[in-house]
């Protein structure tokens, strides 16, 4: 029995590449939290999208009134609302164009992740991935200051697509740091030493490691939402300063200013991480290969090994559908919300503020419950996924009635209030669970794949939803589709085993060392 235990422990440790000689410091950990608070997405993911939606709506027209383009959509809010699209006098629903913009953004992101992700685990250049995409996003987001009139809706769409691509890349690659950072926490180093000395079992070590990763991810997400709330407060002050509620022009300018404020806040809080991040280099690129070629070899090797990493790829496939459903639900609710509040930047900010507060409270509460009752990360994720499933089911009711189903202002306040224990915890535990299914030392590549399936390949939901909306003329008819996208992977995740994944990851690293990096036993 002792021999079997030793074998098991060795397997778990052998798949772990050498740790940094110095554990993660408190200063580094708090710098990580600070960057997360700064890169909270309110400008990149919320305000830039809302600005685009606002301007395209103002440029749209009622297609039932002739001549086409003569009556703005705001004259009769119950009538169809179309935008010129595709040339030759063609036009389509403006909500459909918004969904196309989201789909194009997600498609471009997948290309970035495929090219960069498999390389970032090698050498010492991985910190520059986050730095580069952060700086690019800052430049693009300040560009929104020049876009504040409806005739520039196409420029707003282009800038939104480009900035969302670079922002999500900075977010995903920064996210890939947390498993390594958690593994280098002092308590994990102590637990690892205890495991090697036979003082604790592999199961106890695995739980402590899992809790450490859950801790870093959830506390990061709490601070992300603290930053979210602070930016909302700063933005509200600026909006009152420019009298955003006094007219269309001021409202448009309010959106542009909001993006700039959130970007400036991010820059300030990113500096500590850029200064204090410890270098955790990966293995060198094998002799005879270069960074331009080895990334594709690594990716192809991983694809060929997919059948051996059954648990990991089952989760990636499940998350492909899950993230698509969750993301499209968010887009559909955001469109309905923006229509209901008449595109008011101030009203949208109030609702966003409640979302951030809800996420901050419920994510912290969820982690406290997990640690107190020693609940598996997978269980926490599945509870969150269930509540996420209820969101599009509620929207489905809106197909047949306007009394409920995201037609009324009170529903969006309710959506914002419950955001924390639905979408808030779903994100943090979705990332934390992925960390338990990744071969140690290959976090960038596998989190890049997660980035592809969670955003880069989430063009299916928006594009199909756009087709459904075009066919039916009712934007609520897309909710059954996204409910199915969430339900199927929710069921599939129940069949994923963390224990089987440990063995599969160990085998993957052994095959990689022998077949790809040509590392042989002495």
Automatic annotation (TrEMBL):
<comment type="similarity">
    <text>Belongs to the ATG22 family.</text>
</comment>
<keyword id="KW-0813">Transport</keyword>
<feature type="region of interest" description="Disordered">
    <location>
        <begin position="1"/>
        <end position="22"/>
    </location>
</feature>
<dbReference type="GO" id="GO:0006914">
    <property type="term" value="P:autophagy"/>
</dbReference>
<dbReference type="GO" id="GO:0006865">
    <property type="term" value="P:amino acid transport"/>
</dbReference>
<keyword id="KW-0072">Autophagy</keyword>
<keyword id="KW-0926">Vacuole</keyword>
<comment type="function">
    <text>Vacuolar effluxer which mediate the efflux of amino acids resulting from autophagic degradation. The release of autophagic amino acids allows the maintenance of protein synthesis and viability during nitrogen starvation.</text>
</comment>
<feature type="transmembrane region" description="Helical">
    <location>
        <begin position="412"/>
        <end position="432"/>
    </location>
</feature>
<feature type="transmembrane region" description="Helical">
    <location>
        <begin position="221"/>
        <end position="241"/>
    </location>
</feature>
<feature type="transmembrane region" description="Helical">
    <location>
        <begin position="381"/>
        <end position="400"/>
    </location>
</feature>
<dbReference type="GO" id="GO:0005774">
    <property type="term" value="C:vacuolar membrane"/>
</dbReference>
<feature type="transmembrane region" description="Helical">
    <location>
        <begin position="153"/>
        <end position="174"/>
    </location>
</feature>
<protein>
    <recommendedName>
        <fullName>Autophagy-related protein</fullName>
    </recommendedName>
</protein>
<keyword id="KW-1133">Transmembrane helix</keyword>
<dbReference type="InterPro" id="IPR036259">
    <property type="entry name" value="MFS_trans_sf"/>
</dbReference>
<feature type="transmembrane region" description="Helical">
    <location>
        <begin position="349"/>
        <end position="369"/>
    </location>
</feature>
<dbReference type="InterPro" id="IPR050495">
    <property type="entry name" value="ATG22/LtaA_families"/>
</dbReference>
<feature type="transmembrane region" description="Helical">
    <location>
        <begin position="476"/>
        <end position="496"/>
    </location>
</feature>
<feature type="transmembrane region" description="Helical">
    <location>
        <begin position="444"/>
        <end position="464"/>
    </location>
</feature>
<feature type="transmembrane region" description="Helical">
    <location>
        <begin position="313"/>
        <end position="337"/>
    </location>
</feature>
<dbReference type="InterPro" id="IPR024671">
    <property type="entry name" value="Atg22-like"/>
</dbReference>
<keyword id="KW-0812">Transmembrane</keyword>
<keyword id="KW-0029">Amino-acid transport</keyword>
<feature type="transmembrane region" description="Helical">
    <location>
        <begin position="253"/>
        <end position="276"/>
    </location>
</feature>
<dbReference type="Pfam" id="PF11700">
    <property type="entry name" value="ATG22"/>
</dbReference>
<keyword id="KW-0472">Membrane</keyword>
<feature type="transmembrane region" description="Helical">
    <location>
        <begin position="93"/>
        <end position="116"/>
    </location>
</feature>
